[in-house]
Amino acid sequence: MKCLRNRLVLTPINGTFFSTPLRGVSALTKLFSTGKVQKVISTVLIINILFFVFSTSWASASFTVEDEKKLGLEFYDNLEKDHLIYHDRRVDDYLSKIGHKLLADMPTQFFEYRFSVIKSSAVNAFATPGGYVYVNIGLINLVENEGELAGVLAHEMAHVSARHIAAIVDKSAKINIASLAAILAGAFLGGGGDMMAAVTSFSMAAATAMNLKYSREHEEDADRLGLSYLTKAGYDGRGMPDFLKIMRQYEFYSSSVPSYFLTHPGTDDRIRYLDGLLQTSHKEGGAKSLFGQLRRLQTILRLENDNAVANLKFFQAGLANNADDLDFLYGAAVSQGKLGMTTQALENFQKALKSAPQDIEILSALGIAYYNNGRPDGALTYLNKAIAVDGENQTVLFYLGKVYEAKGDYSSAVKVYKQLEAKRTADDEVLYRLAFSYGKTNNQGESHYYFGLYFKKINKMESAVFHFKEALKSFPADSPRARDIAEQLKTEKKTRGREKETKPPSHSG
Prior knowledge:
There is one protein chain. The chain is built from 26 helices and four strands. The chain has two domains: about 10-280, no CATH class; about 410-500, Serine Threonine Protein Phosphatase 5, Tetratricopeptide repeat. The protein is flat and about 75 Å long. It is mainly alpha-helical and about 500 residues long. Strand 3 (about 125-130) and strand 4 (about 130-135) form a beta hairpin. The N and C termini lie far apart (about 60 Å). Helix 12 (about 240-255) packs antiparallel against helix 14 and helix 23 packs antiparallel against helix 24 (about 445-455).
C-alpha cells in the first residue's frame, strides 16, 4: 500500500487504469461531478451492493472465479439501475469490436468480457471482477487514435485476466468478501453524508489490514500483458505509452482532468517500462486503427455534453482548419440546432449531406432539426431516408412517430410506436404516445390499456387501475387483451395487499 499526499492508492485492488483517492474526493465523486451526470451516485446503489456482499458468507480465504462473477454482475446491475451506463448501439458495438479483437489471441479466459461506457467527462477507465471493463466518455474523447483506446482496454483486461484482485485476497488470510466489497465501494462510490463516511472509513481500515505491497508489480504485469494483447491483435504497441504521455501533458495545463488522474503514481516509470518492452520484446509496426469511425463516435459522445456553446466552439475551431470535415460539420450543426441557430444548422447539415448522402447520423439529425423547427414535411423526408439506411434505429423511429403525430396521421404513428414497443417495452414515453395516438384514432380500448401501462410504469397506480378497468369494457372477456388486463389488475391487487400487510398499525391517542 502506498500513500501519496494523503491519497490511498488502490490500483491493484480495483484494477483501475488510474489511482483512486479515498480521502477528500473519491473516484466516483469526480466521475459524476463533471459532464452530463451532475448527481452523486444514489444511496440505493451503495446499499444494494453492500447488501449483496454482506449477505454472502465466505468460509475460506479463496476468492473464486464464481465470487468474481457474482460481484462484477451485481456492480454492473446497480450501475444500470442508476442509469450511469451510456447506451448507444454504434458506440457499444465499436468498443466490443476492439475488446473482442484483443481477446482473440488471449489465453483461455475465466470470464466473458463486457465493455461499457460510463456517463462522465472525467478521464478514467477501470475493470471490476468478472470481466467488466468500463471506459468514461472523457477518456474516449481524449484518445488520438483507436490504438490508444485499445491500449487502455488491453491494460484493464490484463488486470481481469491475471485475476489481481483474487491474488491479493488469497494472500490475505483474514480478508473476507465483505471487507473486499467495502474496499471496492470506497474506490468506486463517491458522495457525502454518514453513509459514505462509514463506507470510506471501513474501506481504509480494511485496506490497511490488507497487504497491498504488490501495487507496482500488478501495474507492470498489466502493462506487460496488455502490451502483448495489443500487439498480437495487430495494433501498434506505441499506443500504450503514447496515451500515458498525453495524460501526463494535462498535468501542466488542464483543469478538466481529475486530480487523482494528474498524480497517477509511477506514470513516468510505466512509460519507460513500456518503451523498454517495445524495444526488446515486441516488433515495431502495427496499425493505429483496425475498425475506423473513432472520430464520428467521439463527436457523438462529445455532443452528450449539455454545454452546446462549448461544443460549438470546439467544432468551429476544427472547421477553421478544415472547412469540409464531415464530423466537425455534423457536430457544429447539432450544436447550432440546440442553440436555436436554425439557419446555420440546416446549412451545415446540407453541406455535410452532400459529402455523405447515406450518413445515418446526418440524415436523422437533419430530420430532427426540421421537426424541432415545426417543419414536419421536411422532417418526414429525411427521417424516412434514415430509416432506409437503418430500419432498427430507435431514435429515428421515435421521431418518425412524433412527425406523424404532428401531421395528424395517428394511424401511422401507432404503427411506428408499436415497432418501438417491441424493442423498448419499458419506455414510458412510448407507452404514453401509443395511448395518445390510439385515442386520436378512436380506439378507446387500446388507448385506456396503454394509459394503464404508462401510469403503472411511472408508479401512479390509482390512475393505472382506472384505465385498466375502463379498457376491460372494450374487449371480450376471453380475448388475449382482456386476460392481460385482468392479470395486470390481479398483480396490482396483490401488491397493494402486501403493502397493507407491512404498513404499521396506527394508534389513536
